[in-house]
Specification:
Blueprint (H helix, E strand, L loop, with lengths): L4 E8 L3 H13 L5 E5 L7 H4 L11 H4 L15 H14 L6 E3 L1 E9 L4 E8 L5 E11 L23 E3 L14 E5 L3 H10 L5 E6 L5 E4 L4 H7 L4 H25 L1 H15 L21 E4 L2 H7 L3 E5 L2 E4 L3 E4 L4 E3 L2 E4 L12 E4 L2 E2 L7 E2 L3 E2 L5 E3 L8 H22 L1 E6 L6 E5 L7 H5 L6 E3 L10 H9 L8 E5 L14
Parallel strand pairs: 1-2, 1-6, 2-3, 4-17, 6-21, 7-16, 8-9, 8-16, 9-12, 10-11
Antiparallel strand pairs: 4-5, 5-6, 13-14, 14-15, 17-18, 19-20, 22-25, 23-24
């Protein structure tokens, strides 16, 4: 085992969140040493993992991109490979790529109050060697789902199927689906992306859903932004477009919660305008209220175009079992298939699956509360970059990273060794940190998610304007976040550049 490698800050994950955090450190605290530990072999996170046909963002790129390095393309929903390239170029521009260690799976993080340091164990998956790292501040940019495997139901009879059964999270690079019959099981963001993309080559693509999802068509390119570029400085254009999209997304969410019936008609009318009159609208009429689950976005109605051209169809039915040649439904109908894609969702996993301990006591995600949706109750010098579930992920992850930089700067100026949120008795509720959504993947993992509290700062707001004010402008010393100075309670190391 090698000698421990010491840093001021360790960041786990080299996706949008982790690279964004590293860039903010370079911009705001260049004197601090840091390293990004990434299990995969290149940056990108989600956008390196998912490689299925048509993979793209389901949020507009002007808010998914970094505010300090704007997305300058006019495409609203970008392809996965382009997003990964954008993250990679951002890391290179800020010199972050020189501070990333790839191929390391972090398995354990242990905080020692006496030393005011984290000790982090990471497995080099190529050599099998365990590496030990130490740091003063630990930041997780690991997202909220397992990279090893997605959610795969136990499909009756799947062992009898003579075709290929594929999960989008592990897409075969050499898959040939030209002229094949494809069934995509699911109705979420992955399914509505796969169906139009595969329908361009497949003989027929069927989207088999148990229940419909709200779908909204967005323009593939932002013509207003293109027009503004002719007359205004690029920085103005990006700022105006970003704030317009933030406001519009917030309005859609609030309106959906406040006037669900009216907004349901609004979404359904949008679908109806894109489809031929003979298409059965029952396949697009969900049983839940708008934004109880994430709204799916399709560029220029490409899903509806594929349906209108008879390259794709939607079937709403309960599945009974697999057969040798396809899928039998409960109503007796059989869907013939050469390839079945199980777009059945994610398997949630908090803290990247690592074990987290504080002075030898394990801190399980479901046993703790989220503080300002950035830190964890009773866990010192520990940040979690967790984005929005009802808006663009990066909006929250970015201001969370800026908050952590603000906190570290405050600690350095005041000689603090640690900062730890401490919740009062009776604050915790049964609501999880992702309680705003009723999606299947959230319900399945409800007992594994951090809790919310009864009031701020333990409640999750999911509100960009209010979160921005709380994280970037309200006092850091709020009576809840407990600071320990250098030399107190056995803490001898303050947050300053490592030797």
């Amino acid at each position: 085992m090698n000698q421990p490698r010491d840093r001021d800050v360790l960041i786990i994950g080299a996706g949008l969140s982790g690279i964004g955090m590293a860039c903010h450190l370079c911009r705001e605290l260049p004197e601090l040493s840091y390293t990004v530990l990434e299990r995969r072999q290149r940056v990108g996170g989600t956008w390196d993992l998912f490689r299925y046909p048509g993979v793209r963002s389901d949020s507009d790129m002007f808010t998914l991109g970094f505010p300090f390095r704007p997305w300058t393309d006019s495409r609203v929903l970008a392809e996965g490979a382009d997003i990964r390239r954008y993250i990679e170029e951002t890391a290179s521009e800020y010199g972050v790529d020189d501070n990333i260690c790839f191929g390391l799976k972090v398995t354990r993080a242990s905080w020692c109050s006496q030393r005011a340091r984290w000790q982090v164990s990471a497995l080099d998956e190529a050599s099998g060697e365990e590496q030990i790292w130490t740091c003063r501040f630990l930041v997780l940019g690991t997202g909220y789902y397992r990279y090893d495997a997605g959610y795969q139901p136990d499909f009756p009879g799947s062992e009898n199927f003579r075709g290929q059964l594929i999960h989008p999270q592990h897409w075969p690079e050499d898959l040939d689906y030209a002229g094949k019959r494809v069934v995509v099981i699911g109705s979420g963001a992955t399914a509505v992306t796969l169906v139009p993309a595969m329908s361009k080559q497949a003989a027929q693509v069927t989207m088999l859903q148990r229940s419909p999802t709200y779908i909204m068509s967005l323009p593939a390119t932002d013509r207003i932004t293109e027009l503004m570029k002719r007359w205004l400085p690029e920085s103005w254009v990006f700022g105006l477009t970003r704030w317009r999209n933030v406001a519009l997304a917030r309005w859609l969410y609030v309106a959906s919660q406040r006037w669900p019936n009216a907004m349901s008609r609004f979404y359904l009318n949008g679908v109806r305008r894109h489809l031929k009159k003979d298409v059965d609208m029952r396949h697009f009429r969900p049983s839940y209220k708008p934004w109880d689950q994430r709204l799916c976005a399709v560029p220029d109605g490409d899903l509806f175009e594929a349906i209108n051209a008879n390259r794709a169809q939607v079937v709403t039915a309960e599945m009974e079992c697999f057969t040798e040649t396809g899928i039998r439904l409960r109503d007796g109908q059989e869907l013939a298939a050469d390839i079945v894609v199980s777009a059945t969702g994610l398997d949630l996993q908090m803290m990247g699956g690592m074990t987290v301990e504080v002075d030898g006591v394990s801190r399980e995600p479901q046993e703790v509360m989220s503080y300002k949706a950035v830190m964890i109750d009773g866990v010192p010098n520990f940040g979690v970059l967790f984005g929005y579930t009802n808006a663009t992920w990066t909006l929250k992850a970015d201001i969370a990273a800026r908050y952590l930089c603000r906190l570290m700067r405050h600690m350095r100026r005041n000689g603090y060794a640690s900062a730890c949120p401490m919740a009062p008795q009776g604050m915790v509720t049964e609501a999880s940190a992702m309680d705003a959504l009723s999606s299947g993947y959230v319900r399945r993992a409800a007992d594994r998610l951090p809790r919310q509290g009864r009031e701020l700062p333990w409640k999750v707001l999911n509100h960009y304007r209010r979160d921005r004010r709380m994280l970037l402008h309200e006092p850091l010393e709020d009576g809840v976040l407990q600071f320990a100075r250098e030399g107190s309670s056995g803490k001898t190391d303050k947050l300053q550049p490592a030797a």
